[in-house]
Amino acid sequence: MKWIRGKAIGQGGFATVYRAVLKDGDLELAVKTSGAYGAEALKNESYVLDKIGTCPEVIRCYGYSETFEKEQHDYNLLLEFATGGSLSDEMKKHGGRLLEPYIRRHTKSILNGIYFVHSKGFIHCDIKVDNVLIFQNGNAKICDFGLAMEASEKGKVESSRELRGTPMYLAPESVNENEYDYPVDIWALGCAVAEMYTGKPIWNDPQQNQWALLLRIGGEELPEIPQELSEEGKDFLSKCLIKDPKKRWTAEMLLDHPFVTGIEVGECDNESDNNKTSSTSSPSDSYVKDGCKGELGTAVRVKAVMGRI
Hints:
Layout (H helix, E strand, L loop, with lengths): L2 E9 L4 E7 L5 E7 L4 H14 L8 E9 L2 E9 L6 H7 L6 H20 L2 E2 L8 E3 L5 E3 L6 E2 L7 E2 L12 H6 L1 E2 L2 H16 L11 H9 L12 H10 L10 H4 L34 E2 L19
Antiparallel strand pairs: 1-2, 2-3, 3-5, 4-5, 4-12, 6-9, 7-8, 10-11
GO biological process, one term: signal transduction
Protein name: Protein kinase domain-containing protein
InterPro entries: Kinase-like_dom_sf (IPR011009), Plant_MAPKKK (IPR052751), Prot_kinase_dom (IPR000719), Protein_kinase_ATP_BS (IPR017441), Ser/Thr_kinase_AS (IPR008271)
């Protein structure tokens, strides 16, 4: 199926995000585009989303394509379009921070998504407020799986040759031992929850030298838990921000914590849809190769395109 590229709506480290729409339909898309530099990350994201399947708290991928425009060979990932922007954007709309009822709801959604990703044997490796999208109904979904990795067999820690993720959200074991396993996502979740409440990064000095930041994360210092949070909120963060990853609570354990119990959000379907329909790209067209959650024909279509492309 062919699609029409609209205006750019975001810029990341290796990709630009465009608003787009299907040529022969009313499904609005967010298309993440990169040249050769970011191709591997986009391919990795496509692979991970295809493998884990569908979950209400994980961004939906409709497929990928390769385009050739102005002698430029680009890779494109076709994703759900989030009308509310990122969680970071939502925080800015509310003066930089959120009220606790909203924090609880978003935390439950993110936690559901993390639990689902972990249950499929993957680690996100870059949970942060910029990588959570907000939709028209207020639901939050985890996005940006470019750094995600498959966990080692039998739960062994998988190591990477270089730091993987955003420094402000890195777990101590990643800084000290270059270790990446499920607990790193829980530490990052704790950082994001605190940031939702205070409007500031949990280490409270984003301008400091990166090496000084890494020394703080890898040292004995613990990040400060906002004292204005409810007792349940403070206790929740204390379970996320444990230096020893073996003692840090898991996503499954945290889902039973009083801070998020009783919050109604979507539930993930553990049955992965790995059906694919292979297609061939035309050099002159933007053409979808189905994948990442099944065929485009099974997608839920919006009633009308919101805004003009």
